[in-house]
Write a structure and sequence with these properties.
Blueprint (H helix, E strand, L loop, with lengths): L6 H9 L6 H10 L4 H13 L5 H8 L4 H4 L26 E3 H14 L2 E4 L2 E4 L7 H16 L5 E6 L12 H4 L4 E6 L13 H13 L5 E5 L4 H9 L6 E8 L5 H10 L5 E8 L2 H7 L7 E5 L9 H5 L7 E5 L5 H11 L5 E5 L4 H10 L5 E6 L5 H9 L6 E6 L6 H6 L7 E6 L4 H10 L6 E4 L8 H15 L4 E5 L9 H12 L3 E5 L6
Helix pairs in contact: 1-3, 2-3, 4-6, 9-10, 10-11, 14-15, 15-16, 18-19, 19-20
């Protein structure tokens, strides 16, 4: 006897499904046709974070009202207006706006409609040049600002090759914003180019009054520090701050505003291509609740600043250090400060043996580690260190050089390790095969995400199959979507069946972070 669940229970179950997962999106699409109720539940899930492409652009254009369409009338765009209105107001479900994605997708749609680009200007083959592309973008932006009630993220990029946004932005659309990403892509862009992006800069000025609940700010520019300070000061609980391409030597007001208004809520600080000084590191040391610290390609710190780091009030559990231009004593002070609280670490293996020994001494509770293999020089030091990490659960190896000594690392993996993720150059099957021959750890999850696709897929999946038979613990194998062949060959299907007989679930990785 079949049992029918109440609609409200069905709704709760459906809304728990994660539409960011590509496999789930495919399943949800099929479920659209079960009945009208399921359709009404699933459409908002599929359209809150759609993959913006030409088809999505055409759907959005079908949602325009007369005020938005009238800007496109002079261009005689082929938008059916005599058809029945769309079944849903698709624009109101959108949660993330990425202006670059919209730009690219509008170009793609125009191309499919018979328009082409020449010297940066869109025009129909049979018509004179015009400002068509910017008009289409403006119409879609107006529609989204009119309908959106769930926006949580805006990605605003200023590039001299792209157009400005319209002057319209709705407080009702932006009020619940959680993430704001401001990115100046062109190095030649300067503040005196503001007239080119007058409306985008005006949005930066108005944003503090439109949205006060941001949780994350990403700012990739040294421009408009006063606007950034104002945005920070107006937020009611900023948790993550990402700054790039700037210097705090002459203007520490950005960091000061973070300390004075957000120090009790800020838990993550990311800096890339940033120049620090003594004042800036003193301010950062006052971020009381900081848990994650990421420093990449940074400079300016000196050994005399170690005392400031040692006296900092934060307790870090996640550290990412990448190619910074300072003495090793700075890195050593950061790891020593984290001590037993450190749980996640990202390292590039140009670290000295002394640094590795000190991390091993002060940070024994690491559970997740990212290792970038850039040379084989420090492999022995890594091996001795990793072998002593008895709490290590997840290891991510990023090996772009197909390091021949990586098998030494496999021999030293701790028994606590359960998830191994290999993101590397798979052009040398001998290196890959030797690694898993030497690995004696009872892993339950393996993820393979190749850098290059020029390799024999059957050879690599065969290596994993032999490993699964030997250790008898493997439960999940994640494979990159780009690496999986569209048509499995007979020998590959046979290996796949062997894995399934061993109880291994084959899963698809659509991005590096899907597992």
């Amino acid at each position: 006897m079949s049992i029918s669940l109440p609609n409200d229970v069905q709704y709760i179950i459906i809304t728990f499904l994660n539409s960011d997962d590509h496999d789930t999106k495919y399943i949800l699409y099929k479920y659209l046709f079960v009945n009208r109720f399921w359709c009404r539940c699933i459409i908002p899930i599929l359209w809150r974070r759609p993959r913006i492409d030409a088809r999505v652009i055409r759907t959005y254009l079908s949602c325009l009202n007369y005020d938005e369409l009238k800007f496109l009338i002079p261009f005689r765009i082929n938008i059916p207006t005599n058809q029945s209105p769309p079944l849903f107001e698709y624009g109101k479900f959108l949660e993330i706006i990425n202006l670059s994605d919209i730009n690219k997708s509008v170009k793609s749609w125009l191309s499919k409609e018979g328009y082409k680009i020449e010297t940066g200007t869109w025009y129909r083959v049979t018509e004179p040049r015009d400002h068509l592309m910017n008009s289409v973008k403006a119409a879609i932006w107006r529609m989204l600002m009119r309908k959106c009630r769930r926006l949580i993220s805006i990605d605003l990029k200023l590039d001299l090759g792209e157009g400005d946004i319209p002057e319209i932005y709705s407080k009702s659309a932006i009020y619940y914003l959680k993430i704001f990403n401001f990115n100046v892509l062109s190095r030649s862009f300067k503040e005196n180019d503001e007239n080119v992006y007058k409306k985008s800069i005006e949005l930066l000025r108005q944003l503090p009054s439109l949205s006060t609940g941001l949780k994350r700010i990403l700012w990739n520019s040294s421009l408009y520090p006063d606007l950034l300070v104002n945005l920070i000061q107006k937020q009611n609980g900023l948790e993550s701050f990402n700054i790039s391409q700037t210097s705090f030597r002459s203007n520490p007001t950005v960091l000061s505003s973070l300390r004075d208004t957000q120090s009790t809520t800020l838990t993550s600080f990311f800096a890339s291509h940033v120049h620090f000084n003594e004042t800036s590191i003193q301010i950062i040391s006052g971020f009381h609740n900081l848990k994650t610290l990421s420093l990449s390609y940074c400079a300016g710190l000196e050994p005399r600043h170690c005392e400031i780091i040692n006296g900092a009030s934060f307790r870090l559990n996640n550290i990412i250090l990448r190619h910074n231009s300072w003495y090793f004593e700075i890195d050593l002070a950061i790891f020593t400060k984290a001590g037993r609280d450190l749980r996640t670490i990202t390292l590039y293996n140009n670290f000295s043996s002394e640094i590795i020994r000190e991390i091993h001494k002060h940070c024994p509770n690491i559970k997740k580690m990212f290792i970038y293999i850039e040379s084989s020089m420090y492999i022995p030091s890594f091996c001795n260190w990793i072998n002593g990490l008895q709490n290590l659960h997840t290891l991510v190896i990023i090996d772009a050089i197909a390091c021949p000594r990586i098998s030494e690392l496999a021999e030293k993996l701790p028994k606590s390790l359960k998830h191994l993720k290999y993101h590397g150059n798979l052009t040398l099957i001998d290196v890959f095969s030797k690694f898993f021959e030497c690995c004696m750890v009872p892993l339950n999850t393996i993820s393979i995400y190749p850098i290059s696709l020029s390799y024999d897929f059957s050879q690599y999946i065969s290596v994993i199959s032999e490993f699964a038979i030997r250790v008898k613990s493997l439960k999940r194998l994640f494979l990159s979507r780009k690496a999986i062949p569209k048509q499995w060959r007979p020998q590959e299907l046979e290996i796949k069946k062997k894995l399934e007989n061993q109880g291994v679930d084959l899963c698809t990785l659509f991005s590096f972070y899907d597992d």
